[in-house]
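Hello again,

I reread your note about wanting to compare the complex against the isolated chains. To keep things tidy I'm splitting this into two emails, and this first one only covers the full assembly. Below are the input lines as submitted, including protein chains and any nucleic acid or small-molecule components. They are followed by the predicted structure of everything together. The single-chain runs will come separately.
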Amino acid sequence: MRAVGIILAGGNNDRLRELTEIRATSAMPVGSCYRAIDFSLSNMSNSGIKKVAVITQYNSRSLHDHLNSSKWWDFGSKQGGMFVFTPFMSKEHNSWFRGTADSIYQNISFLKRSKEPYVLITSGDGIYKMDYNNIIDFHIEKEADITILCKDMADMDVSNFGVIKLHECGKVAEFEEKPLEAFSSTISLGIYLMKRELLIELLETIIPEGRYDFVRDIVMRYRKRLNVYGCMYDGYWAAINSTESYYNINMDFLRGDVRKALFSQEPYIETKNKDEPPAKYNAGSEVKNCLVGSGSIIDGFVENSVLFRSVRIEEKAVVRSSIIMEGCKIGHGCIVEHAILDKDVTLSNGYTLKGEANNPKIIKKNSIL
Amino acid sequence: MRKKEMLAMLLAGGQGSRLGILTKTKAKPAVTFGGKYRIIDFPMSNCINSGVDTVGVLTQYQPLQLNRHIGIGIPWDLDRRYGGVTVLAPHVKDGEQGHWYSGTANAIYQNINFIDTYKPTYVLVISGDHIYRMDYSKMLSFHKKNSCDATIAVLEVPFEEASRFGIMNADGEDKIYEFEEKPKEPKSNLASMGIYIFTWDKLRAALIEANKEHNDLDFGKHIIPMFLEQNRALYAYRFQDYWKDVGTIDSYWSANMDLIKAVPEFNLYEDFAKIYTSSDHQPPQFTGPDADVKASLLSEGCEVFGSVYNSTLGPDVIVESGAVIRDSIIMANCIIGENSVVDRCIIDENTAIGKNVKIGMGENVPNKLKPKIYDAGITVIGENSSIPDGVTIGKNCVIYGITDATHYQDLRLDSGETIELDSEGII
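Full-complex prediction:
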């Protein structure tokens, strides 16, 4: 129990369009049966973190539903637990969280009451599997004040990330959010480790100054005064930050190496159990290169797609290169290509829905077409 | 302590020897069913779905896997501060040596103290052997309405099959006046389902009285006849839905196959009264680019690159490319190697089938060692076993243990043959 965890799960993202109108990004369904936040929660639990705070704000209902019990991630213990914080009114505070640092500051008693020496801060939208003990060990070895988990993105476009340049020794030389000119291919994964007491001290300094953002006002502003290091991570990592990335992440799970890294090896990524029966393939079904969620019943043709739980594909329906979320029903003879169907969408018999490869068609939750 | 109106006693101690190798190291209620479930999940889920939140599970034969599965009852919401699930194993009592459970009613007799703790008015006695979905609270209403001392759930079976069951002969009000175990000439077709509700003080007194004469108390042999003799209010509660005893290899196999039908008689996909089970983790199931899956149930974590027809696959089964599985039950964590053919076969958990293996070939000859158990043309491969590459195996064969090419003659095992290795790997 070296660290407590904080998951900043308050945000949504305009670039996810209709998909996050109704939910926080951390609550985005991914990979047939997961929500984005499952990855951070499972990583923490699997790394021996016993106590975690989930800070929510934007449409927190969507997350509360998923986090209705801490038992799925083994946080339901006396020595620890999962604390879900939403903005609240009190004598001192009477506002929404004014930024990420403010959201932690408004719940600073969580930090003050903990005994663990370190605090690990992550976002709730990263899709990856990691043992956080690696970053803690790195942090201790380097005698760092703040350690940022980094990844080399090779020739990928990094203009939407925090770009970092590291010195040979691992110390951060430059750090800029969404730079116009990328000066490096290394990005911050939005995962930070520091001493719990240092965080309390910094928050108590910056908030009265009217500074509320964790990355800008703590990590960047103090990067020269404090020892800020970058710890490299080279496994699979992706963040849900646009419809494009959302679509691609789901399709990544059709790759054997990604499934192996994330799902089929211990420690496992855990999620809320919905007790659905096995997926049922009926006599006429034809399924090629698909993830299929439990409780689904398939009669039609499905190819290169991700089906979530309890999806119904009726006879003669054709689904290609699409993401079909929980509870959707694709009627007899429908054609669906390059589409993202949010939860509980019903397509009546014979409906045709076609998006484009680089611009999937999005259908809002509960639509009946 | 607070009172519970009704608690359930679930008899899960039986071996189920007619399931052969499948119950070698686990009790019958712990045997996998329908891909991801175990047989005991059905009565356990029925309990919680009927509002019965206190369940004593009586274990005896090979309880390890069952204990691990039940845990503290989390999957069934039976982790309660008061009540919940309690595993009751035979134990030593003051001033005596302790006894095994010698009969169904004896197991209840030995746990009178457990039941008394909750001061129940009624006790539900069920077993961990059957596949069905039932609302016990309706049966309890029937029991109360008729002011019964005991209610026995019955199923109307075809008359020609009635002689295989315990048959209740009842009057026009369904009050039972006679009980016949496997009658040659059945007078009625009301077969006992092994589900009883007793008014606890009546059962308690009967158990204590009957135990003075019999040390192997059984509900069918002793308690029910005794109730009838004493002219107690004993009623038959008619159940009119799917119920299947999965006591033999053939019935176990066909009950699994029932689930695969396009409109199954027993529907797992109902939103109400879900069947719950313990699953460690539930990754998505993947069907590969060249896979062909038809009329099958695939559980979480399965990765299929070959063909699967008319079969049920448990969690995390891997079917490699070119492999063909037909009319089979493959349990959790099995691997079916490249280009292997598995036909009418039951493969227990954690078993690896090599490449180019053929199972279920040749003539339908009953098993030579146990012809009564393995005669339906189904080959059964035990848990934690393995089959080497290139072997051809017949029908009604039994294989248990890590086998290699030396265990087979010319890489063949003819129909009806058995290879059973002990833990040292010796036949």
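For quick reference: The radius of gyration of chain B is 23 Å.

B.
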